[in-house]
Sequence to fold (1368 residues):
Amino acid sequence: MMIVMKPTASEEDVQAVIERIESVGARAHPSRGDEVTVIGAVGDLEHIERLELQGSPGVDRVVRILKPYKLASKQVKQGQRTVLEIGGRKIGGDHFGLIAGPCTVESRDQLLTAADAVLAGGATMLRGGAYKPRTSPYAFQGLGQEGLRLLAEAKERTGLPIVTELMDARDLEPVLEVADVIQLGARNMQNYALLSEVGRAGIPVLLKRGLSATLEELLMASEYILKEGNESVMLCERGIRTFETAYRFTLDLTAIPVLKELTHLPVVVDPSHAAGRRDLVEPLSLAAAAAGADGIIVEVHPDPEQAICDGPQQLYSDDFSRYANQVRAAAAVAGKAVLVDA
Amino acid sequence: MMIVMKPTASEEDVQAVIERIESVGARAHPSRGDEVTVIGAVGDLEHIERLELQGSPGVDRVVRILKPYKLASKQVKQGQRTVLEIGGRKIGGDHFGLIAGPCTVESRDQLLTAADAVLAGGATMLRGGAYKPRTSPYAFQGLGQEGLRLLAEAKERTGLPIVTELMDARDLEPVLEVADVIQLGARNMQNYALLSEVGRAGIPVLLKRGLSATLEELLMASEYILKEGNESVMLCERGIRTFETAYRFTLDLTAIPVLKELTHLPVVVDPSHAAGRRDLVEPLSLAAAAAGADGIIVEVHPDPEQAICDGPQQLYSDDFSRYANQVRAAAAVAGKAVLVDA
Amino acid sequence: MMIVMKPTASEEDVQAVIERIESVGARAHPSRGDEVTVIGAVGDLEHIERLELQGSPGVDRVVRILKPYKLASKQVKQGQRTVLEIGGRKIGGDHFGLIAGPCTVESRDQLLTAADAVLAGGATMLRGGAYKPRTSPYAFQGLGQEGLRLLAEAKERTGLPIVTELMDARDLEPVLEVADVIQLGARNMQNYALLSEVGRAGIPVLLKRGLSATLEELLMASEYILKEGNESVMLCERGIRTFETAYRFTLDLTAIPVLKELTHLPVVVDPSHAAGRRDLVEPLSLAAAAAGADGIIVEVHPDPEQAICDGPQQLYSDDFSRYANQVRAAAAVAGKAVLVDA
Amino acid sequence: MMIVMKPTASEEDVQAVIERIESVGARAHPSRGDEVTVIGAVGDLEHIERLELQGSPGVDRVVRILKPYKLASKQVKQGQRTVLEIGGRKIGGDHFGLIAGPCTVESRDQLLTAADAVLAGGATMLRGGAYKPRTSPYAFQGLGQEGLRLLAEAKERTGLPIVTELMDARDLEPVLEVADVIQLGARNMQNYALLSEVGRAGIPVLLKRGLSATLEELLMASEYILKEGNESVMLCERGIRTFETAYRFTLDLTAIPVLKELTHLPVVVDPSHAAGRRDLVEPLSLAAAAAGADGIIVEVHPDPEQAICDGPQQLYSDDFSRYANQVRAAAAVAGKAVLVDA
Fold:
């Protein structure tokens, strides 16, 4: 940690910082330049962090030298990438995962038709929401336990592992009975109670980036899960909030190569929620795959016009095979081991 | 609701939209211009909203005519502003509230010293956190139930109503025993389970705006509380995330007059978390009060250098009286009924 | 144009809006709902726009039905895409352009080495800056006219058309002697004097999106050029400013399919300036090509470590052929007619 | 300057950075920690900056210790604040300036009526645009030289110094004949040719912050003017672009205290363009004044309903005296020497 003092900092300000650093058993190395003083702080990082020197009198900036996340950082695994194996499907490293299915479980017929289609198109997992976070309290909130039951049926029928969202720690038990991967939504990325809970449950987690979360915050959120001993975490870019109003969110594909440098965890992209429009889903999927994403989670529906939720962004299940081939071709350009035209 | 079609929309696209509108019992009024067609949809708003026509083939934009929030909107109360009365202290309308106290409850001595100081300076409520949301799982997470016990003691001693944060619905019961106002943090603004829970509890709520939440989303979040029959909600602007890195968050003071136009609920500002630096807290507090805020929630500590959490942004309790007088002077310029130099 | 009144608007507010609409010879069609009144305004769009009704008393929102740009919009060309032919190289439609070369012209040797390499790798145009916009007045500002002279030599040697930046209308004449395409930088996207000047010059223009410009503003800026009778405009996405600090800018690849829907003009992507780091340039280039970009403009240098400007983001010229093959493979997935392994 | 290496940086990466630092005559001080190496670079800052080490292989971050602006920084003046005296009116330090007048000069009658009203209300300068930057090439672009002539008349009549915008360096001469302060608009904040030109002209400049410019970039832009020997620069916050769509721009009032710490230059706020709505102008003006702004530049029109440009945001000239008294009351709370009820 380095503390850059302001040019206007007094000697008392400098001394106060040094004393605080030393008060937690760390060592302070002041370096007095012509214009500003810089103080290096060496010792137990957690103790120094807790001093929260940023904003102290005379302090211009606190520069962290080490990353605040530990278990998520790449070094932990000496440069090796985590490959998750879920129900026999691998994701991460050279393995590209294609998670597909309806936004929301609406009915037995809808779910099974979608599940059959995505299986036929070569999807590696089936997604579907039983509990839905909605901006409006007046909107459809999901089928709940009935939705979970239908997911169990789809899993038995297709053999596809199930990815489904958990919003409330009190629903953990029934969700665990069906889910192979628990999805945590963007709005819950910093719901720390929930993060710790799924960490303790030990189930693979797909953690979505918050709408305005930095990559560092996303990694810190994953750290809440990893710290409980659960190493099976996928990170998911799903669009961030910017000033642009011509489309719903700005899909941040730079996050893919940057996250792959910072962490060993697989990085997945959700083009459906970012775009909010079917016609944007394919170009964004190809872009994500070409940029090196480890997987894509995409919404597919047999009859999107009749969908209860997010219809306009769901792909037609009839078109899924063609789409999936295109995505695999793009992933192949990025060096993933995929069979094109599976 | 108005659906603006794209110039390239086909007649089939137009018909499909009309049919979907009519399928929920609403009426469609197409208006065909030289270049584009606009379709008005009249009927049950919730039904039409659920169609999610935005993003449908040929649809350029869906323009909502009515606001999606109902209970939070100003008309509900025919232009009257909600005034909350909490432990005898009013906030809202002409009444300016000053909520002050330490970021985190750290010890009996720290809390009681701060409580005495803010009482003496004319604060109307005491704030203090027993459960703390932290970006890092390795940071101090609050004293928990012991913190609540100390808040109860401070309340008994000073008579000040208590504002404290709830992060996990499973802690609701003990928090309710002490709190006069439950604070929901920015990261939990869209934790819908928690919103509904405090709604049902019927206790006054201070709801903080998410880091990248629009005002409409903030109002929709309040709607989750109001819908449970709990009308005692204060909205709190606490800084939004922008590209600027010279300070922590960008305090959005335009939100004050805009929210006061959109809703009858009181609007409070938290300058401490927005700024992250003590020297910015006073100018931002004066700005908020002068812009017409109904109250300020500010952090005060007897010895910020020794604070476990957010020390650099906490005001010195010794300086609180002077600060409070300045804030009241600014609120008076904005027309609030405050006694300057209380 | 539709004017949505506030629920609190008075009848006088409504009448005032109607009168203003009629004052410019347009017709007003009020539609009074239970809660709000909506007024349609039909007539000369420019006249109605000039009324600037947004923000008038009682007005909630003004909803534009038609796009404010005309010449840039897709309909002008009845759905046909503009294909530019520059020095025999096509860009737009099915044609993918690869514009490459050093950030800044530094020396004869540097420029010619880079030019030879990009020619060998299959680039279709050569880029190089003689005038450089720099945040700091103390930074290198480009070789100016000497740089232009060297570009002329590189053009003669390689036959590649030249893309170079113009920052000041007073330098137009010498730049026109060399340039086949004039680049207008992000910071000058709304330099209206400059836009009109290059419009009148009739030369192809590569117009970069401003750091926080919406797509609509980018199209309006292109309209300044098109309106002078110059139809040869390429739009360039080069990263927008967001809250994320882990990398320089957020490359907005959603802009590609969205712009291709809104306009007939070719859409080009600059991954070098967005990323600011060489290791991100290739994944972002592949993503852009896979998303359907009509071309890429990328920085290449024979010895980036010695570059005067933006060294860390420039590709090694030795590596350019391999890179270019990868980019073409990604463009082929998106349906562009490119020879892979050219 | 400190260069923080990545944990994965090789010894070659470290050596390459050291060599590049030494290649410009600076000294490199590597400090090898357990996990990462940090290299201090001491010497001529400009030379080191030009190396552009950010993004080099193995480099995680480059941390600037010193600010990149020199003349704008506070230390230059040893903590003294610049007070500009323009036509006998002071602004900066304890002096609060109130610059008011119409958005655009439309007619003799309009301008003189507005000028009389703002003089009567205690404004210290008169604003009015003769050249107008417009997003649309089809919108009114200002009266040009005729507008300048009318401003000259208003100046003679009222004695008020004139603030007017310059957009094109080729108009400098006629503008200099009338203007006491040249305004540079947000879209031209990084029009470096224009900045240097007004720097050389030696006239006071009001420099508006770009829509997405950081405070550091604003200061660097001012440095282009200061470097030409022109010390008379006011910085103007006028709203930044964020994700919020409920109003036009987000007025960043945190910029006021932060800029006042970073620079000796006066800081002025433009609430009119930020808000775009008359009803927001007063609360934002009070907030700006209470936050310690050195002045406000506000739009006032005798008949905003008939304004050619930005009517809905212009204050009624009839109401200006009352408004100005309110603003002065807020400035007085912030410690400015103003006569309330002037």
